[in-house]
Structures are given as structure tokens and as C-alpha cells.
Amino acid sequence: MRDRVTAPSSIALPTAGDGLVWRPVTAADIGLILELAHAAGKIDHPRSLVTRDELEEGFSSEVFHPERDAVIAVDASGRAVAYGSAMAPASQETIVWVELDGTVVPDRRREGIGTALLAWQEARGLQHLAASDATLPGWLAAGAQDHATSAIRLLEAHGFERARWWLELERDLAAPVAEPPSAPEVRLVPYGKEWSERARSAMNDAFRDHWGSQPVTAADWASGDRLEAFRPDLSLLAIASDPGGAERVVGFVFVDVAPDEWPLRSGPFGYITAVGVRREARGQGLARTMLAHVLRALRADGLDHAVLDVDADSPTGALGLYQSLGFTVTDRAVSLVKRF
């Protein structure tokens, strides 16, 4: 990668925006960034919230160095007006994927702040790519909700291309849930820490053939386990035994429940963060069985709806499965990529 990508040796801080002070980021800025994310989220992703513990986990990542990988713009009142980061990949198996995440507070948009921020992010992203010894494709990637047309136009003006669509689906849990099909070859258990490494292995196998997916590291897995919204008691694992009696995870459904988000969807809901089956265990209806159990568990927990996101072109036919279980499409988002 370092032989293909040219990156600047140093990057000047942006200067756009009247009365703004641009500076590198520290962990002390998490509160400011959270306030900005909530203000911008009302426009950009009005049905989901960024949480403090998500930010804190991100800042504690071994691959994120905020003083080098992020910038913030603060106005005279001390309010964060813009924030952007360029996150290096934690693992590089098929792609060196650098994630660009940035936002500008709604009342200061159309002043050139977002353009200046994206230019800084691109430059830092190029530094990440140029530092890689991998012989792999390099991507600078960002995402946006379908309705965020100005953000999409900005990215496209900088050479990013729409690469993949993601669908948000929702199911009313008041509707009957079919009796879960039997799965005699496995036993179904709630997620527990004793299964952590075996579940991570199953996740990495199940998503290996999915677009852009890279292996989840042990550190990132542990970070997800620590999030307040994660509900291991509502999450489900399918356990199979090999001829020697050793048990391994062959399927999984993971669930988050975030009460702070319930007002955004007019009632309590559970978010299904991941569904997967090891490749050698596919074709046996295991995903349907696990989902039916989880949907019943969500309803028994007093939740009104189940929500999930899916790759519109999932190679496993996941969209058809979810629709057959009563999920309907409620929103779309897009990944935009600049390839090197």
C-alpha cells in the first residue's frame, strides 16, 4: 500500500468558519462531541442516538489516537461546531478500510465547514493507507442516510462513489410469531462470557463472504460486550458438538436495547445487531429458528418492535428471510468509498 498511495507528511488544521477554533481532539472532548452528535443526529439520523459509552469505547481503542486521528472546531461559547475522524483499521485481511466519520452542527452548515473537514479527513486517511505494508485494496469510506443528500453530494464531489446500500427493517412484535422450527443438531443458549471467543470465531466465519467485512478483533469484541445497550440475556447462540464432544458456536443473534432511543420510535424496541450462521451450517433453517426464538423473547420482555439493518445485496439472502418473518423496510443508508 505504501508504494501506491502518496500522503502528505503533515496536515494543517482546517480554518473554515467564522469565529471557530480548530484543534486536535482529546478524551476530554467526549462530552462536547456527544452534544454535537445529538444535535446533528436530529437531522442526520433522527431514529438513533450516539451514546457516551460508544464514544468512550472508541476513544479507548488501541488503533485510535484522537490527537492525530481527529479534529474539532469550537465556537466562542465553547460549543463544538464540527468534529471529524479518520480511523485506521483494526484488522486488514482483504481491505485496508479507513473509516471517515464527521459532522457539522445543523445551524452552521453551508459555510464550507464540512468541505474543509472532509479535506482534513482525507489527508489523514491517506496517511493511514500510506503507512500500511499490506498488499491489498485501500478504501477511504464514509456512510450517510439516504435522506442526507447534502452529505452524499459532498462526498461524491470529493471522488467518493456509492458502493453499497443498507436497509433498515422493523417488525411489530404484536403480530404473531410463528412457532420456532426445530433444530435437533444444536442447542440454543443465551450469550455468556464463556462463549465469547467461540462466538467471535463464528462471527468472523459467518461474515467472511460479506461485502467489506473484516475480522473482528478480540479487543473490539470485548468493547462491544461492555456497552450498556448490549443484552446478552436476549441474545442467542446455537451450539453444536463435534464427534469428540467439543462444543462450538455455529450460529448467533445479538440484541441491543437502548431505552433512551425509544421516544425516537414511539415505543420500546430491541435492535438486532447481528445474525449469522457459520458457512458449513447454512441451508438448515438455523437463522430462522434463532430469530423466531429471539422475537418471542423480545415480546416477552415487553418490547413493541424489533429493528435490524441488512445489506441490500446480502449474499446469504438475509433480506428475504427477514421479510418472510414479517420485517418491512423503513429506511436506507449508503456506504460511499474512494478506492486506491
What can you see in these coordinates?
The protein is an alpha+beta fold and 340 residues long. The chain contains nine helices and twelve strands. It has a twelve-stranded mixed β-sheet, sandwiched between helices.
Annotation keywords:
globular; 28% helix; 9 helices; 12-stranded mixed β-sheet; alpha+beta; 340 residues
Furnish the topology, listing elements before pairings.
Elements (H helix, E strand, L loop, with lengths): L20 E4 L5 H15 L7 H8 L6 H4 E5 L5 E8 L8 E9 L8 H18 L7 E8 L3 H9 L3 E12 L14 E4 L5 H11 L11 H9 L9 E6 L5 E10 L12 E9 L8 H15 L4 E7 L6 H7 L3 E12 L1
Query: Sheet with the most strands?
Result: 12 strands, mixed
Q: What is the gyration radius calculated from CA atoms?
A: 21 Å
Q: Poorly predicted ranges (pLDDT <50, ≥5 residues)?
A: none
* Separation of the first and last Cα atoms: 9 Å
Q: Would you list the SSEs in sequence order as H and E?
A: EHHHEEEHEHEEHHEEEHEHE
Q: What structural category arises from helix and sheet content?
A: alpha+beta
- Strand arrangement in the largest pleated sheet: 1-2-3-4-5-12-6-11-10-9-8-7
Instruction: Kindly report the average pLDDT value.
Output: 97
**Helical run tally:** 9
How many β-strand runs? 12
Q: What amount of the residues lies in strands?
A: 25-35%
Shape verdict: globular
Helix content estimate? 25-40%
